[in-house]
Amino acid sequence: MKTVIQRVTEASVTIEGNVHGKIGTGFMVLVGISDEDTSETVRKMADKIAKLRIFEDSAGKMNLSLSQVDGQILSISQFTLYADCRKGNRPSFTGAGSPAHAETLYLEFNAYLRSLGYTVEEGIFGADMKVRLLNDGPVTILLDSHEL
């Protein structure tokens, strides 16, 4: 599982001209799933994201977690995180999970974060989405489940 976490002051996802999800302060998370990922992988990644201390405290240091700033999450499925660009100029996405497996785990990821008490807005798996965000900092963190 791979994720890109961006600390934002606002973010939204629009599908077919309609805003489908919108948050204020929090994380915009791009979520990539592989076929080797499991429910355990999902929980481990979600727990890590929930505990990341990347919001500034009163001293200006990144020391506060999402819950400490009453932050929200915008979760977007993103198979292109598994792009393999080693050969040629057209990426291969064979490392991305099959759609059925990836969608199941993506929805499970969002549900698990909700069970931890977070407000989670999401896109629609497989849809053509337009994502807008105001990256705060900018702060962008890459997480790979193989490195956790």
Looking at CATH, which topology would you report? D-tyrosyl-trna(Tyr) Deacylase, Chain: A
The main sheet comes to: 6 strands, mixed
Fraction in helix: 10-25%
Mean pLDDT: 97
Spatial extent as radius of gyration: 15 Å
Order of helices and strands: EEEHEEEHEE
SS summary, helix count = 2
- Extract low-pLDDT stretches: none
Judged by helices, strands and strand pairing, the structural class is: alpha/beta
Concise summary:
The chain has 148 residues and is α/β, with parallel strands linked by helices.
Key terms for this structure?
2 helices; alpha/beta; 148 residues; 6-stranded mixed beta sheet; D-tyrosyl-trna(Tyr) Deacylase, Chain: A
Structural account:
The protein is globular. It has a single domain, classed as D-tyrosyl-tRNA(Tyr) deacylase (D-tyrosyl-trna(Tyr) Deacylase, Chain: A, 3-Layer(bba) Sandwich), CATH 3.50.80. The protein has helices at 39-51, 99-115; strands at residues 2-15, 18-23, 26-32, 53-56, 62-65, 72-77, 120-122, 129-144. It has 2 helices and 8 strands; from the N terminus they run βββαβββαββ. By secondary structure, it is of the alpha/beta class. Helix 1 (39-51) crosses helix 2. The strands form 2 sheets. Strands 1, 2, 3, 6, 7 and 8 form a 6-stranded mixed beta sheet that branches. The protein has a two-stranded antiparallel ribbon with strand order 4-5. Strand 4 (53-56) and strand 5 form a beta hairpin.
